[in-house]
């Protein structure tokens, strides 16, 4: 599950999928009256408040018809097995039984005393394989000796490979060993929002807002920041993080970060930040091999008290090779089938969920899709890629998009030229040849092209 997904957001997404499935009459009677209260402490159930006057009918409808839909949609959205937990108003008042939904934006509390860590993200639950064993070893060393040799520590790699899990495992281990430690997990967007909110409140005569922000982040024992590539092209927040970084490292406090790419490949990231990141150590996480994927599935099986034959786990592990998140989603979809639809844990059932996944994930490869994916990765716009601008990062994005268009579609050079701002075929040929040469000589470029192609194909 996305670490920052709150109960309200999850319920909004699930209910929006239920509406076209069940129709307005059933939706108004059995879905709309429910309100999300929070997750249970183990994050395995979403608690929904049911009106007392119609609780019996609503609960029965959910038990017989709607619960399975909920589980399927929750699995697709979060990648985890989450069930609905319907409670009347009286039962939702139980003390310490759930993690309440966040306050609304009008009641926004800028800084929580909670570290923001997911308790499921531990080293014990992180399956080690050839693609992540080095990253895991360094993470373990950081957790055991924070602020010393490996500071800062940056983990980079593609989406859904376990970067956040590994980073939060460091925080959870450190918290376990040091119960009074001040730890904060935040996404790069969280950091940006906290910073801009402090500036806004400071401009509204709340002179303490900026000081509170600085105190919160600069007095930590460990700061964990997810997805720092989000700061690309945002100099003001980079400046603030630079100052926060210096304050923490000077005090020998640990910083751990994740990114979807190596820091030097993040466009418009200040050189002095890159230099600071190089003071510590970076490690990448690669896609898990088949053996690791099957081990992940066995681990999930044990966690969920299931008995699934090895040949079934092997089939799923071989078929789902995108990333760990997709693999977990496939497992939970299979789990939902055998728990709620009484399907047997067999090869046939596994093939049925794999067919559903493949039917849903394959996207039509078009020039527009290639341009959109590449532009997003390079944090550019499609319009800029079609323009005559010659900034280095933009030119690279344009060349990569042209190469992928040439290799993934049947478009001719003139057709590709028209799709990229009416360029002549010689320019297209030059761009293609340049990337082709780099793919042959540079493993990093080859890896990037493979990852982008997979994203384009899989949706």
From TrEMBL:
InterPro entries associated with the record: AAA+_ATPase, Chromosome_initiator_DnaA, Chromosome_initiator_DnaA-like, Chromosome_initiator_DnaA_CS, DnaA_C, DnaA_dom, DnaA_N_sf, P-loop_NTPase
SMART domains: AAA, Bac_DnaA_C
Residue ranges constituting the Chromosomal replication initiator DnaA C-terminal domain according to the UniProt record: 366-435
Record carries keyword Ubl conjugation: no
Transmembrane residue ranges: none
Chain segments carrying region Domain IV, binds dsDNA: 339-459
Main location: cytoplasm
Protein family: Belongs to the DnaA family.
Role played: Plays an essential role in the initiation and regulation of chromosomal replication. ATP-DnaA binds to the origin of replication (oriC) to initiate formation of the DNA replication initiation complex once per cell cycle. Binds the DnaA box (a 9 base pair repeat at the origin) and separates the double-stranded (ds)DNA. Forms a right-handed helical filament on oriC DNA; dsDNA binds to the exterior of the filament while single-stranded (ss)DNA is stabiized in the filament's interior.
Protein name, as recorded: Chromosomal replication initiator protein DnaA
Organism: Fructobacillus broussonetiae
